[in-house]
Amino acid sequence: MMHGLWVQDQGMVDHLAQLVPLLHECASHVTEGSFEKADFSFKKIRMLTIADGPLQHLSKIIVDSLAHRLLSSIQGLPGALIDPSDYFEKSTLWAARHNFFKLNPYLSTGFVTINWAIMEAMEDEKVELQVVHIVDLSCSAAHPWQWLKLLDDFHGRPGGAPELYLTVLHDDNDFLAEMQSLLSKKAESLEVSFRFISVIGRLETLDFSNLRSTFQIKFGVAVAISCALQMHRLLLVDDNLSSTSIAQLQKMANFTQPKQMASSVCSPASTLNYLQTPSPRTPKLLARLLSAIRALKPNIMVIMEQDADHNTLLFRDRFNEVLNYYAALFDCFHAVAAANPGRTDERLRVERMILREEIKNILVCEGVHRHERHERLDQWAMHMEESGFHNVQLSFSAIREVGLSVRGNSRAADYIQISHSGCSVQHMSGSSRGMFQDDMLSSATSSPASSVYSPSPSPSNGSWVQELSHDQQSVRLIGLLYQCAAEVSAGSFDRANLCLEHITQLASLDAPHALQRLAAVFADALARKLLNLIPGLSRALLSSANSADAHLVPCRAPPHVRRAPVPEARAMEGERFVHLVDFSGPVANPVQWIALFHAFRGRREGPPHLRITAVHDSKEFLANMAAVLSKEAEAFDIAFQFNAVEAKLDEMDFDALRHDLGVRSGEALAVSVVLQLHRLLAVDDGRRHAAAGCLTPVQIIARSSPRSFGELLERELNTRLQLSPDASVVSSLSPHSPAAATAAHPMTSTPKLGSFLSAVRSLSPKIMVMTEQEANHNGGAFQERFDEALNYYASLFDCLQRSAAAAAERARVERVLLGEEIRGVVACEGAERTERHERARQWAARMEAAGMESVGLSYSGAMEARKLLQSCGWAGPYEVRHDAGGHGFFFCWHKRPLYAVTAWRPAASRRGHTRS
């Protein structure tokens, strides 16, 4: 607690001054392989990265990479962790790359430079039948803007535009189709003869044996090759060395490099006096490509690359360069986004989806897996010259035009300088240079490169999997999951880790069978439960919840949670002014309320004046929801108003609920809460033993001084099991236990839920409709929760597998919505365990204790929900079962209830009651 206050009292400058040495210190501990010291560094860094700033954002990504590198020497557990990049969709990746272009002034300037170089190289090609063939090898960095501008430039040339051929290499056919459409329309409007040629693939996997045929280049035409931010991927070599060799190199570097050189090797712009690993020869893959391109006899080849030295063998050198280079880049992006606040989400998307992947690859991977091998200009010049290419200087007029382009771009003018040294080099100008030193890194040897992303050491190397049939694999997977959970409960790290290793050989997020995908998600949750015992390390890892746009995906959840709004429509019959409050947060969906528009429009007296207030933590989502509903309301001729409340339900001030929601007198109020109320059940159930003399994780680490990560976790597990409240408190609450419905007064153990329900009751809503998971995941004992969760989500994954939903949509729901739920149920404890699902009968006891009474849901409401399922292609074993007492209905799969819908209002004896 004192540490938190101490951090808050420091100024931002002090924070930055502390953060940089801590990052170096943490990298040193990772290099040593010291889990205890690194864990402590992770905790200190996390306290300093709460503020919003470029270095803080970069630090979160760097410590995530350091944590992954620290774990990479362990077999089993790292492979079970699901990386945020596994949640990236094609559409969001496209958006991130487009945002990268918009936020990055260097890219647009680089494209302008490439275009001018091509234009100048083609000046001598003024023949009667002029044909220019351009090959774009930029792959994921390709952008239509570059070639749209070139079409304009060629069109404005005094001699007119030549006949243009453009071959684009990319691994996404949809992207190529969209690019072809854009460029073809542009060429047609300019009356330029143009042909687009698509080549599906990646540069590093391209067949170099016959590029002329692959790119469809005719003999006798002028050829230009363009490659942006891709050539470094061909520098990969299998540079895995034995730990002894790396140790010797590290010691030599530490012995021979004076510490006073630290300040002279910081500048990302400097190419002189920089300690770098010399490249003896051009790697074979790059040499083969350049040889194949040279055989095409191109008029010019233009490359654009990151001017950084990330291709060094020693980890410490790469870390220093990464910290310097990306600090300047993050600083630039924050400045561009600050000039346009609407681009904050774009910046976050770029940082997490583009730059994080680069940084992680540089810092975590080794050998052929490390493909982000950026080098400096002089190194590239050497590679090109060795391959038979000579430098082509841009003319003064070209440099002048590029300079004009920079000055005309307000976002680029402050960050780019042009130097004429045979090519155009973009330099970053910012205050972040010179603030990093490398003398914090110790002389300890690097961890063996072969241990990073290397195959499993299992003697059979996974061959046993091939010998099993699908049914045998399924049985084996279920047994391994239960065994792994039991080993976690027993505190046996080695056995749990071995189980995880075997599970990952059988399971995959992309597997065709639901059980394999479910097992991959549960393996991730079990691995994180082990890591959560080392909180600094665990929190250093970025989860899928941190991934860009993850908060937008669940809105496309299955129709189980997109019920027809029949209860609200019935409750509002005859009302002229209706206010509906949607607390559904991440699973909110405007489609549900469009159905309400239909119901209101069909009323005999006409639709009411409708206000909808939505509570969500994403401004972007709220804006989209407002636009969709406003458009539909206009089409239905309904007087409509949308209010956005940017917040999370569990973080709201319930004392100010009336004010925050804008509740007015004279309006009939309806409240809808979907899959959110259980989050208010979270309590810090570890505090009950705070006075029992329990050791903190740091104290346990300090006293035990374990030699390995396995020992550390086993000691921590055993200690936690001895002290855990879960082992002795409410462990008897099984889903079928009588005690489950008659436990201690619910309001005393869940003050947050009590405050919320009291606040809602004071608003006197005509109806409050809640949808919750029909499961018992709020038990105290871990093994009990795991068993219940595995059975529940197995049914849900099987249900989704049989649905008519597209594979991509199903994957989104499984990975983001359900994956986060499973992780919350299995991996978390105490106040962090917010996924505390309970059954309908338990919710009934809580609601009645809070002064609410049940509102019967009619059978017709259940029938409307059934129609919705059928309209979405959900039939067969799917059914909607009406509660025998008429209190609610259940969405079921093979007669197993998955979700329950119930309705409530203030009890008659307490209506009009308000809190004092």
UniProtKB/TrEMBL annotation:
<keyword id="KW-0804">Transcription</keyword>
<dbReference type="InterPro" id="IPR005202">
    <property type="entry name" value="TF_GRAS"/>
</dbReference>
<feature type="compositionally biased region" description="Low complexity">
    <location>
        <begin position="442"/>
        <end position="463"/>
    </location>
</feature>
<feature type="region of interest" description="SAW">
    <location>
        <begin position="827"/>
        <end position="905"/>
    </location>
</feature>
<feature type="region of interest" description="SAW">
    <location>
        <begin position="364"/>
        <end position="442"/>
    </location>
</feature>
<feature type="short sequence motif" description="VHIID">
    <location>
        <begin position="132"/>
        <end position="136"/>
    </location>
</feature>
<protein>
    <recommendedName>
        <fullName>Scarecrow-like protein 3</fullName>
    </recommendedName>
</protein>
<keyword id="KW-0805">Transcription regulation</keyword>
<feature type="region of interest" description="Disordered">
    <location>
        <begin position="436"/>
        <end position="465"/>
    </location>
</feature>
<dbReference type="Pfam" id="PF03514">
    <property type="entry name" value="GRAS"/>
</dbReference>
<feature type="short sequence motif" description="LXXLL motif">
    <location>
        <begin position="677"/>
        <end position="681"/>
    </location>
</feature>
<comment type="similarity">
    <text>Belongs to the GRAS family.</text>
</comment>
